[in-house]
Amino acid sequence: MPSQTQEIIPSEGAMYHDVDEPAMLKSGSNTLIRFGGNFSPLIIVGAQGVYIYAAGGRKILDFTSGQMSCLIGHGHPEIVETITAHAAKLDHLFSGMLSPPVVQLAEKLTGLLPEGLDRACFLSTGGESNEAAIKMAKLYTGKYEIVGLGASWHGMTSAATAATYHSGRRGYGPFVPGSLVLPSPNAYRSIFRKADGSYDWETELNYGWGLIDQASNGSLAAVIIEPILSSGGMHVLPPGYLGAMKTHCEKRGMLLIVDEAQTGVGRCGSMFAIEHEGVTPDILTLSKTLGNGLPLSAVVTSKEIEETCFERGYLFYTTHVNDPLPAAVGLKVLEIVVRDGLVERSRVAGLKLKSSLERLQTKYGCIGDVRGRGLMCGVEVVGDRATKAPSVELGDALAKKMTELGLSANLATMKSFGGVFRIAPPITITDKELDAGLAIFEEALRTTPGTMPLAACTQPQRGERSSNTREMTESRNLDIANPPNQNYTNQPAKRRHLALDDEPPEISSNDTQSFLPRLLNPIQNRNELPLTPQNSATPRGESGSKSSMIVGPVMAEDVQMIEKYMSSHGRVQQSPRDNLYNTISDNPKDPVLYLTVPRRRQGLSLKRRPGEKQREILEQILGPLIDDVVALQALQNHPCPDLLYVWNLAVAALQEEFQAPGMSTINAVLLDLMGRPTTSITGNTINSGRTVGLSHILGLNRNPETWKISDAEKKMRIRLWWGVLIHDRWSSFAHGVPTYITKNQYQVPLPTIEILMTEGMDITSRREAAECFIALCTLTEILGDVLPLVYDRREKLATETSKVLRRLQLDLDNWEDSEPVLSLLRRANEDGREIVSGSSSLKLGFLSNATHTTEPGLSETKRYSQAMLRESAREIIIFLCSLKSHHLSEFWTPYSAYHISSATIILLRCAIETNDPLIISSCKSSLLDFMAWLQCAKVKDKWDLADICLAQCEDPIMQIYGNKELPSQARESVLSYEMNQPGNNVRVFEGVDATMFNFNGFNGGVHTGPSVMDAQNYVNGFEYPWADMWDLF
Question: Which residues form the Xylanolytic transcriptional activator regulatory domain (predicted)?
Fold first, then answer.
């Protein structure tokens, strides 16, 4: 870590040498116009990568990417090559002429953007692009009033300046008529607050629009807005804000213009910031990042808006419109960002940057707030955290110290947002370079007077665990729910009991102590795992006799009103009994109360704790294998117990647990439902339903973000709910039972990386697995729209269903094209790359979901619909046959067995219902090929999902295609490609002995050999063979 002013040494990064810095600064002050404050006291003589070089050889880390523009670093060699080539042969043209780089950039850019942003125009600066967008909005709507945000910055041209309220509005006379302003969303300083103190942006926005409606003369044309108000203090729009703004615009017949000058092209951890909200604006503008520092900007809009404006004579003729040289640079920037995975790099590095800055916030009182997204963060410097008083002077001192130490971090000192450091390094920055910049930042805080070090902040706070304790209790798999506030230490091996104290303690209005159940981590430190029953601890008295359930919304309001009345009239008396109601959120719009209830039904007495007997048996069975159990290793090197018996013991214990259920019950059910193979669909479906009911009782379906509970408990509740929802939806998809949960019954936000990750265990493999889980959650939401169509028994118009299906197909397309889903699906069947556990299962779920969005159509379109369904099933089989052994060892959901069998059955049905010999041959070839692959996966990789599908589908396939030649054809599917045989495209599977496929059980095409179904029906409870049911066709 640097401790003094950076040493000045000659640098190879400088372009100019022997520069007299003082003399040049003096000359500049005499010859240059100042356009926004004084110039920097440095003369920069070079820029390369993430560094700039000052006269005299000083190397300075550039944490602002120049003017927030050098997205992929200074002097990127491919950008240099592009500029050189086009400067030599294709630099500038008459404005009406087109050139390859301009057309190719338009194609590439609109291809990356959502539908509705279809046509583009390329200009020079952000102000110019916003000017063009505003003129387009006025011409299209026939109106002229433009609404901006109070901390906005959109440029220095006429209309753009009129929509800029951040600064520079005095001394120039009237601005363009019709300029109106909304309050800026500022979660840190806004006066709009909910009853619990959280930011109420919705009320603020609605209030602002009320003022706009009063001030408007009825000619509202457009809103122009930044996804992150960078110049205004790095304020990120709250979740839902952009969508609400779009709604307000549509209500008034206005267009929505989104200015992504700084946020676009990967800066914020997504290709474009609008992707975070899923909102498509009417017009999008880009600049800074698109040209990587060169003067290039873009206006993108819909085909309909462009054609209407063209017909009305739209005019924005400039000297450098659609110039080939900057367009070629923009095309190269997009190519590099996509090719090198820099969007994901920005997201991951941004998480590290923000968490590091938040760590500094806990150490220095001068940091009032840290905010941002991706590699675009703001650090607000204050003189007093309590009053949030700005401290521009301290910010200026910190900025000077950082520059001395070798870091350039832009400090905005305008009164409109006090002192905020805007941090936006190139998204090509390495971890080492990022760490170096953060080290300088911390050193500046340490050595600058007035930063208010907080020594106490370095100590663990109440409810926090030390890092070594967290590591000790961390499970090896991604947690669905991590237990809060555990504090285990290395002690001699002894038995521990799961506490039954699921009742909440009394909570006052200013107490955020945990009220949720204490939950023991199912996988403890191996020195703590129970070995013998002798050292059992005694449960605490009556602590396990009570539980809690959430009070319904109507009754909650009634209870809250009564309590307020009694309190105001002095009628609240202390009672020796526990409080019957506990208020968790006193928000008058949505109060949350919990009712204390008996944990067991009255008269039910349990001599033993639920699951106690089963636990003792398991300890005896698994005692010799304790180390392997803790390490989650395979047991093939030891005498293996009857795992089915072990599993059934655990399930029996779970059923007992439902007699006195609590939060730990939900965690146990989720673990059981995730087990493979599925041995009881009926039992799993019933457990899923009971778990949904228990989740509602415990209030897991409510958004806990503003509740008076610890952050750890908020995260646990969100994780548990999404685990419950995933099983409810996918078990419905697989097992033919309608869902227990509908979309209007919950308000829990999607989990984030921060919610899923365990503090102190932020490693790449776990982060990627967390991304996969989030992607599964979003896919589950789409599935929630599909399933009502599957189970709707009412008669409805085909056109009505078709509209819904087309929307769902679009939702699936958008999901597939989103990040990080796109990269996860690409890696699902790639070799030579580190596996993202669960990515293959995720892709299978996506492909299977697509089979349910095929339009049924009318009779005349039935053939087309069947063809689409057949191709969807073939795509699943092609994907599965492309998988290797390392893919099969990933995490797979138990519902994957249904997806595999379903695709097989679809192809079988298509073969039955068609008279087209080509289709029959194609289906037959695919099915035989697939059966061979499944046999390989079963025998070579011990893949139980293959075993399940073979048990279901092997018999009917052999019956339908049964003939005397069948056994030899099946052998050929394993032994060779037989490329010369017409219609035969089956495959060989490497490393597979053909003798493992025993076809002797087929007699004249009828299967007479043993089947998995004969020994264990893994999938359903039917007592008659699958083949007999298939004969009903």
Answer: 684-757
- Site of tokens 């730990």: 664
- Helix/strand/coil for 582: strand
680, amino acid identity: S
Amino acid at 617: I
Q: Give per-10-residue mean pLDDT for the chain (1033 aa).
A: 45 79 89 86 90 88 91 94 94 92 94 93 94 95 94 86 83 89 92 89 94 94 94 89 94 96 92 91 95 95 95 93 95 93 90 91 91 93 88 89 90 65 93 93 92 61 35 32 34 32 35 29 30 29 52 63 60 48 66 64 54 60 56 48 66 73 82 74 81 87 85 88 90 83 88 81 78 88 84 66 74 76 64 67 80 53 69 85 84 84 82 78 83 85 81 75 42 35 39 36 33 30 32 28
How far are the Cα atoms of 106, 180, 307, 889 from residue 585, in angstroms, in the given order? 50, 37, 52, 44
CA distances from 573 to 507, 556, 563, 700 (A): 16, 21, 11, 32
Active site residues: 153, 226, 259, 262, 288, 422
Q: Give, as one character, the DSSP assignment of residue 1001.
A: T
Beta bridge partners of 390: 382
* Identity of the residue numbered 643: L
- Cα distances from 739 to residues 76, 438, 702, 743, 787, in angstroms, run 53, 49, 18, 10, 8
Q: In the chain, how long is the greatest CA-to-CA distance?
A: 100
What burial class does residue 4 get, using C-beta atoms within 10 Å of its C-beta: 0-12 exposed, 13-18 middle, 19+ buried?
A: exposed
| Other C-beta atoms lying within 10 Å of the C-beta of residue 730 | 27
Residue-by-residue DSSP string for 344-383: HHHHHHHHHHHHHHHHHHTTBTTEEEEEESSS-EEEEEEE
Tokens linked to 273: 């910031």
pTM as predicted: 0.50
Helices 711-735 and 896-913: crossing angle in degrees, nearest 10, is: 30
The predicted structure's pLDDT at residue 440: 94
**CA–CA distances in Å: residue 618 to residues 53, 482, 530:** 67, 24, 10
pLDDT recorded at residue 504:
33
Residue whose entry in the numeric block shows the structure tokens 């590091």: 356
The reported pLDDT for the residue numbered 510 is 36
Strand-pair partners of 407: 61
Closest to 856 measured CA to CA, from 813, 909, 802, 792: 802
Pairing of strands 220-225, 145-149: parallel
Q: How many Cβ atoms are within 10 Å of 856's Cβ, its own excluded?
A: 14
Number of H helices and E strands in the chain, helices first, is 35, 23
Tokens standing for 558? 């009634």
